[in-house]
Amino acid sequence: HATLKEIRKAPEGIVKAQEAFELIKNEVKLPKNILYIGCGSSHFLSQLLAMATNALGGKGFALPCSELMYSKEYYAIDSPELLVAISRSGETTEVLKAMDVLNIKKLGLTAYESSLSKKADYALIVNTPEDSVVMTHSFVAFYFAYLQLLRESYGHPTFNPEEVSELARGVLEKEEYIKDIVDEFDFSNVIFLGSGILYPVALEAMLKMKEMAIFWSEAYQMFEVRHGFKSIADENSLVVMLVNDPFDWHEKLVKEFQGQEAKVLVVGKESLNANYHVEVPQVDSLLVPVAALPVIQLLAYYKAVKRGMNPDNPRFLDKVVRW
Ligand code: F1P
After folding, report:
1. What stretches of 254-314 adopt beta strand conformation (E)?
2. How far is it, in rounded angstroms, from Cα 205 to Cα 301?
3. What is the ipTM of this complex?
4. Residue 318 in 3-state DSSP?
5. Which CATH architecture has domain 174-306?
């Protein structure tokens, strides 16, 4: 499948991301107050970038394109100095229209010379075109390219791209283990949990399951799930916990789900006595998404295959959403 090939390209995507960053780093210095927009996966990426902006000392806010167009009065958009518009294709109708809403400078984050890059004042073009309908390694590459630009702009040392590429390669080596989980446990629903920068990753995981495997999935901020939502978890459920810095509550949460007979997969440094564990080495917390994303993409891919779905051609979906 083309989709599997694209997922496996995460390490080379990091190299392309670094090249894209190098090309624009002298031209663009990001301001502190930034509004991010995108649709679908690109919206979840906009949430990741807004959080990274906040963590590095700026002020980031993320909205789906359509919300900026039609409902902006309900959101605390606080005089942004830059609009970052994200779209793999650079041709999604909503993103192009939403760019007209605010009269401020725009940066386009995209994979191609496209309508988006032409319309924007600056373009960060990460050369990661994908044959897959769904966004896979380009998501990781876009994230890393922009993260480097944020760090450079805000006076933080940039990351070593070889090390980050190696991080992605390391988790991709767990492909067989991830496939085995899906083969062994025929779960009938899946809940993804993540906190902070890992929450948008959980949302993206939820979307990947729906897009690729046409399969019911949910996502919550880690401990929010205990407040009612956990009632749906039973012996047929897989709970995926994306954990960066574990403390005693995480292990308690694993036990709580196991008490409901659900099985838990922990993606993080420690296994926390979960049923399954994909280890992520100790890295800067902003790099954990680079490790976690290929894992959840593989999980969705193998679930699709197990269910007899074709992830290259998901029903009702288009690669570019136009109106
Ligand atoms: C946005 C998007 C994708 C999604 C699907 C439909 O595309 O929602 O995130 O996976 O393929 O389009 P884009 O604006 O990033 O090209």
Report:
1. 263-268, 276-279
2. 11
3. 0.94
4. coil
5. 3-Layer(aba) Sandwich (3.40)
Structure tokens at 32: 């502190």
133 CA: nearest ligand 1 atom: 11
Closest protein CA for atom 13 of ligand 1 = 87
> Which string of DSSP letters, residue by residue, matches 122-155?
EEEE-----SSSS--HHHHHHHHHHHHHHHHHTT
> In the chain, what are the domain boundaries?
2-159, 174-306
The CATH architecture to which 2-159 belongs is 3-Layer(aba) Sandwich (3.40)
218-272 pLDDT per residue, tens: 999 999 999 999 999 999 999 999 999 999 999 999 999 999 999 999 999 999 9
CA atoms within 13 A on the CB side of 101: 27
Q: What is the pLDDT of residues 166-211, one digit of tens each?
A: 999 999 999 999 999 999 999 999 999 999 999 999 999 999 999 9
**Main-chain phi, psi angles of 64, to 5 degrees:** -65, 150
Distance 293 CA to ligand 1 centre (A): 16
